[in-house]
């Protein structure tokens, strides 16, 4: 059985969406993120832009094989905001994503059911209009070799259509390649069999 080596995410930030219920306004945002620093950056940015809002509730998921997620109600009743948003991230099967719903309170309480529905719907709307793309899970390898073996290495890289992410080509050369997870074994074996060429996983 071939292991799954792709994941879904969004390429760029999505245009904000607006959901209204009983005078409360819910603005939904989606951002592609790779780590918690980026999450923090977008949250701070939104809090500045929407400083008069009442709540900035969010959920994010990071990672491709080991997933890290967090859901935050930001002052709304427990599990009425963050988890409904996170539920939509799961439902659309996306990762490396942050969804924030900014709420402007309209003076009328929505109750638990109303809140869950509002946050869930806003997250769903923002995901529906996001451009969801599929990416491959890649593993990086470092290939080290002497300059005289350059042609051999380059020929294999070309034949196997490998992606070079970094290279240092001097007397002793180093190339970093990014290999799709399901192809790592054959790529590693090919280079590993060669005399005077070293390959190791980063």
From TrEMBL:
<dbReference type="GO" id="GO:0006446">
    <property type="term" value="P:regulation of translational initiation"/>
</dbReference>
<dbReference type="InterPro" id="IPR001498">
    <property type="entry name" value="Impact_N"/>
</dbReference>
<dbReference type="InterPro" id="IPR023582">
    <property type="entry name" value="Impact"/>
</dbReference>
<dbReference type="Pfam" id="PF01205">
    <property type="entry name" value="Impact_N"/>
</dbReference>
<dbReference type="InterPro" id="IPR020568">
    <property type="entry name" value="Ribosomal_Su5_D2-typ_SF"/>
</dbReference>
<dbReference type="GO" id="GO:0005737">
    <property type="term" value="C:cytoplasm"/>
</dbReference>
<protein>
    <recommendedName>
        <fullName>Impact N-terminal domain-containing protein</fullName>
    </recommendedName>
</protein>
<comment type="similarity">
    <text>Belongs to the IMPACT family.</text>
</comment>
<dbReference type="InterPro" id="IPR036956">
    <property type="entry name" value="Impact_N_sf"/>
</dbReference>
<feature type="domain" description="Impact N-terminal">
    <location>
        <begin position="22"/>
        <end position="127"/>
    </location>
</feature>
């Amino acid at each position: 059985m071939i292991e799954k080596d792709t994941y879904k995410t969004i390429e760029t930030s999505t245009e904000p969406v607006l959901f209204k219920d009983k005078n409360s306004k819910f603005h939904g945002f989606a951002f592609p993120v790779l780590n918690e620093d980026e999450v923090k950056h977008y949250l701070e940015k939104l809090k500045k832009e929407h400083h008069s809002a009442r709540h900035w509730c969010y959920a994010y998921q990071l990672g491709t094989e080991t997933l890290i997620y967090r859901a935050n109600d930001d002052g709304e009743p427990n599990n009425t905001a963050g988890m409904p948003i996170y539920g939509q991230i799961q439902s659309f099967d996306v990762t490396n994503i942050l969804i924030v719903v900014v709420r402007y309170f309209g003076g009328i309480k929505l109750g638990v059911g109303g809140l869950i529905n509002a946050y869930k719907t806003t997250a769903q709307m923002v995901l529906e209009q996001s451009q969801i793309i599929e990416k491959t899970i890649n593993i990086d390898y470092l290939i080290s070799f002497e300059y005289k073996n350059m042609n051999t290495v380059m020929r294999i890289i070309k034949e196997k259509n490998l992606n070079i992410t970094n290279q240092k080509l001097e007397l002793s050369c180093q190339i970093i390649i990014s290999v799709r997870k399901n192809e790592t074994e054959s790529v590693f074996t090919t280079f590993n069999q060669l005399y005077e060429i070293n390959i190791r996983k980063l």
